[in-house]
Amino acid sequence: MAFDNESFEEEESFAELFAASERQQETSRIVEGEIVEIQADDNRALVGVGDKLEGIISLDEIRDADGELKFGTGDKIKVMITGYYNERPKISYKKVLEQEKTIEFIDAHKEDFENLVVEGVITKKNRGGYVVEADDVSFFMPRSLAAFKDTDDVVGKKIKAQVVKVDAEDNSIVLSRRKLFNEERKKKKEIIDKIMADDVIVDGVIKKITSYGMFVDVGGVDGLVHYNEISYKGPVNPAKLYKEGDVVTVKAIAYDKDKRHLSLSIKAVQPDPWAEVESELDEGDTITVTVSNIENYGVFVDLGNDIEGFLHISEITWDKNVKNPADYLEVGQEIDVEVIEINPKTHKLRVSLKRLLPKPFDEFMKNYREGDVVTGTVTSLTDFGAFVRIDGVEGLLHNQDISWDKNTKAKDVLKSGDEVEVKIAKINEDDQKISLNRKTLLESPIDKFATTNKVNSVVKGTIRDIKDFGVFVSLGDGVDALIRDEDLAPLNKEELEIGQEIEAAVANIDTRRDRIRLSVKKLDYIKNQAMLEEINDTESHSLGDLIKDQIK
């Protein structure tokens, strides 16, 4: 008999190799012995086999499935003498059973073993091949038919192999792992060729589910259904839809001959719902969907026909401070959305919820005007100011409009969540921006200054800054004033220093523009005028006294 271009004539007799490995031709024989002593402490029994010779067997060979001894002292027992060691016979009860099992196997299959596959464990390795045991039957697998590398450590390994020869005369059964592989490859190729034919749809059984897809058995061949090929919705978690053992209908979509990878698809069996979407939906349409999944970056919505759309977090509400979509929506909730993008080629559908909601800025414009005083909530603080929400719309309260004190910033007096009263300073409809003012609602230091000081009043202050055009003077209580260069005389500007005290006259108070101008020059003029008046008063008084004296 020949198979796969292999010939028994080219090899050493498998039966001979097997027999040699077991040393059976010359020394192995079955005899009836008697158990003469059981040495439980040493886990062994002494068995007399005639001619006053005793062999030793392990008690494990004569235990039943429950671990109990099947024989006792004086019982007759069949054993196989496999050789001698220091004139003491080497015996085995187990090998008698194996031989009996082997003979039973041969009798049962000697006429029909062509397609017989056994599964056993490799128990020995010799120069000719391997001894395989399965169900107490010993098999021999020649090295040339084993399909192992020389470096493989296979003793103790569980294998499957095909029976290729049964020899009743030698009580030997030969296995071939190589032939089994060839038969399996041939069978798999036939299956793959069949299912790779056009439009062939088959049922398969899910064998294993992983994070990237499912391995499905289709008639003895495993194929991978990638998670992209499960649903037209896009990548899905297979563990949420299926379990191992489920039957699924699939179609083969690719086969890599080099890697022997078969790719299967579940969605290829189903009609493409995107064709329907392309013909019936347009951008701008309003549709009803169901929230199917919520992520930090947005929400997936189900259209009900195996298509999912994506609702980005920025399209949920007009509120710009959305932290988590779960604060607005929940899984299973039905909502109306507007279609804002359809791409059947990339299977991309984007929708918007906020576009069906009233725009907060439009509502704001209906209810408020510039100059209105309102109460809002601080939503965030920045280095340049604070954002304040008023009826769903945010306005900017700039640092310069927080307080009359120019050194005060929003972070110094406000925190997120504070309620603050502000005045709507400006509304920019084109940019939809709102400017707010808080300091105009507070008493102006300039107004307070004007109640106690008038033009020509003499004041003292401290030089705060020196500019090219003049000197800024701090008068205290948040009041600053400017002395222009032309009003510094008779002082020399080059001699002035920041922090120096300076005296001047009030030249102008502009409460509308919050500005005060001082003048040293005017102060000098006022002082000179006062001095002249004093001199004139003195001279007039002296002349009057002289005239009175003359009259007398």
From TrEMBL:
<keyword id="KW-0689">Ribosomal protein</keyword>
<comment type="similarity">
    <text>Belongs to the bacterial ribosomal protein bS1 family.</text>
</comment>
<protein>
    <submittedName>
        <fullName>30S ribosomal protein S1</fullName>
    </submittedName>
</protein>
<dbReference type="Pfam" id="PF00575">
    <property type="entry name" value="S1"/>
</dbReference>
<dbReference type="GO" id="GO:0022627">
    <property type="term" value="C:cytosolic small ribosomal subunit"/>
</dbReference>
<dbReference type="InterPro" id="IPR035104">
    <property type="entry name" value="Ribosomal_protein_S1-like"/>
</dbReference>
<feature type="domain" description="S1 motif">
    <location>
        <begin position="456"/>
        <end position="521"/>
    </location>
</feature>
<feature type="domain" description="S1 motif">
    <location>
        <begin position="371"/>
        <end position="439"/>
    </location>
</feature>
<feature type="domain" description="S1 motif">
    <location>
        <begin position="28"/>
        <end position="96"/>
    </location>
</feature>
<dbReference type="GO" id="GO:0003729">
    <property type="term" value="F:mRNA binding"/>
</dbReference>
<dbReference type="InterPro" id="IPR003029">
    <property type="entry name" value="S1_domain"/>
</dbReference>
<feature type="domain" description="S1 motif">
    <location>
        <begin position="199"/>
        <end position="267"/>
    </location>
</feature>
<dbReference type="GO" id="GO:0003735">
    <property type="term" value="F:structural constituent of ribosome"/>
</dbReference>
<feature type="domain" description="S1 motif">
    <location>
        <begin position="284"/>
        <end position="354"/>
    </location>
</feature>
<dbReference type="InterPro" id="IPR050437">
    <property type="entry name" value="Ribos_protein_bS1-like"/>
</dbReference>
<feature type="domain" description="S1 motif">
    <location>
        <begin position="115"/>
        <end position="178"/>
    </location>
</feature>
<dbReference type="GO" id="GO:0006412">
    <property type="term" value="P:translation"/>
</dbReference>
<keyword id="KW-0687">Ribonucleoprotein</keyword>
<dbReference type="InterPro" id="IPR012340">
    <property type="entry name" value="NA-bd_OB-fold"/>
</dbReference>
